[in-house]
Amino acid sequence: MAYADRISDLARTLAQYPTNVTITGAKIDIRTKTQLDSLTAQISSNEALAHEGDALIAAASGKDAKALSQRIANAAPQITELLKAFAAQDTERLKTLSVVSKNKFNGASTNRLQAEKRFADEVSQLLTTEASTVAALPTASCGPKPQPTPSPSPAPVPVPSLDDVIASLPGYLQITIPDAVAGYNADSLATACNASGDAAIKLGVKTPDGINDYATVQFTGGPDITNQPWATAILKDTGLGTIDDRVAILNNALQAQLSIADAMNDGSSSEPTSR
């Protein structure tokens, strides 16, 4: 079985289900664009791992079989965990719906949500099975193998240090979230960015993306955003991945909430005033 191809087939089936519904004339997302982007990224990651496993299975051996098996096994529950994070986000972003609208939304979204659960369960089973198959492979094949001619490796792209990333935060935030930092002058913005970067490092963030995501969360959600129960729950849920992964999920959840709030405000401001 080509596990990567099977995951790809399942993903195409899932993509046929609608990601939004219309309730009383208003379109409401079952899955926001940010959520879909996160889901697509996780599916692509799983497919890449499955391709690696397929290659080792086809070769009937591999010196990295044990390590790859563990990576595949670790990936098996990730889509299920991502859907749990989506559920927490949905509870927050849909709480402004009326009871009637919420009931209609629940009914209309059932097919998509059930399809997502089936997809997550099947992918998890596929990856678990592949991990076991890869783990059972011998570490080396029988007989000599022709050695490939080494090709020159491209020069690695240097990864900026976290201090460099923090120093560049003011410019980054002025481009990505200009409204959130419009009230700062250059000095106060630099000071606030340094404080945000230090807080991210203290939390355990280890990557440039993690620093940027954490700063985006603080400047768009306020300095106390990470103390809110729903945010704390995401940051403490180790099942969602590394702390950098969790900060990214928190940022996605916050941006989804802000988008919903903006849409609600636009809708209410366009309503005719009754006389």
Cα gyration radius (Å): 23 Å
Spatial sequence of strands, sheet with the most strands:
1-2
Strand fraction equals under 5%
Cα shape: flat
Q: In this structure, how is the largest beta sheet organized?
A: 2 strands, antiparallel
Commentary on this structure:
- The chain is 69% helix and 3% strand.
- The relative contact order is 0.11.
- It has helices at residues 3-15, 33-59, 65-75, 78-93, 99-135, 162-167, 169-176, 178-181, 186-203, 208-221, 229-236, 243-269; strands at 20-23, 26-29.
- β1 and β2 form a beta hairpin.
- It is flat, with a radius of gyration of 23 Å.
- A two-stranded antiparallel sheet has the order 1-2.
- By secondary structure, it is mostly helical.
- It is built from twelve helices and two strands, in the order αββααααααααααα.
What keyword list fits this structure?
single chain; 275 residues; mainly alpha; two-stranded antiparallel sheet; 12 helices; 2 strands; 3% strand; flat
